[in-house]
UniProtKB/TrEMBL annotation:
GO terms for cellular component: plasma membrane. Pfam families: PK_Tyr_Ser-Thr (PF07714). InterPro entries: Kinase-like_dom_sf (IPR011009), Prot_kinase_dom (IPR000719), Ser-Thr/Tyr_kinase_cat_dom (IPR001245). This is Protein kinase domain-containing protein. One of its GO terms (molecular function) is ATP binding. It comes from the Eukaryota. Residues 13-258 form the Protein kinase domain.
Length: 258
């Protein structure tokens, strides 16, 4: 049976190959590899398809930068196996995305803390490579066979100059602080089991395309929840960098702070 998607040549994609889709790409499982290809429907215009092709290519540039160094922290990023002009080949993660996993399972505090530490460590590396993720959510973390986590989606990411200051850089409202805030929503969702989606454009005028972190009153309470103080620090600017967040999580792991 065919899916509603077409490949770049306009041929129908078999439904059994489709493992996911986003706003600009569809992910296929082919020969044990996850293949990310531009989103195309039967009714898509040529200009729509071209926009999605360019999105895939921009994301490839992000993967090239993130994989250009031999750094152990990059293990928290889904491995990019190869590129073509219209597709990206990624390692297939057998246990799917974190949001789907959380709907079925409640991880222990020990596993949650291991995940949070890996997330923060990976974000340190990403920011050190002068990339803003911009779309950090439980649906964009994938689980390997051993339940280790890897971030997978850079379609909205900003590739910044290598000499920029990550604490002050601003790309149309997107900042390192917003990445940290979004990571806080992931932590909240893992700890509580409740979704925590944030709209960075909620109160914008039609002509304002900048991202804005929402007011505190629009976010859920962290009172009385495990690691609530860390989540709160992500949301209120208490952590000025991913490195300071990682240090706080290290203090929990070593028992210095609960």
């Amino acid at each position: 049976m065919s899916s509603p998607f077409l490949d770049i040549r306009g041929d129908p994609i078999p439904k059994e190959q489709v493992v996911g889709c986003g706003s600009s790409a569809v992910i296929l499982l082919q020969n044990g590899v996850a293949v990310k290809t531009p989103l195309r429907y039967l009714w898509s215009s040529d200009s729509d398809v071209e926009v999605n092709v360019q999105s895939v290519r921009r994301e490839q540039d992000v993967y090239r930068r993130l994989q250009s160094l031999k750094d152990d922290r990059s293990k928290g990023i889904v491995s990019c196996i190869g590129f073509s002009a219209e597709a990206t080949q990624l390692a297939y993660m057998a246990n799917g995305d974190l949001r789907t996993y959380l709907a079925k399972c409640r991880p222990s505090h020990q596993l949650q803390l291991a995940w949070f530490h890996e997330m923060a460590r990976t974000l340190c590396y990403i920011h050190d490579r002068r990339v803003l993720v911009a779309d950090i959510a439980t649906r964009n973390f994938l689980l390997d066979t051993d339940l280790s986590l890897k971030i997978c989606d850079f379609s909205e990411a900003s590739l910044l100059p290598l000499d920029c200051n990550m604490e002050t850089v601003d790309d149309n409202g997107f900042t390192a602080q917003i990445d940290i805030g979004l990571l806080g929503t992931v932590m909240y969702e893992v700890v509580t089991g409740s979704k925590c989606d944030v709209d960075l454009f909620k109160d914008n005028s039609p002509t304002d395309g900048r991202a804005y972190w929402p007011e505190r009153k629009s976010l859920p309470s962290t009172q009385g929840i495990w690691l609530g103080w860390i989540i709160e620090g992500c949301w209120d600017g208490g952590f000025r960098s991913a490195h300071s967040l990682l240090r706080a999580l290290d203090s929990v792991r070593t028992g210095e702070v609960l």
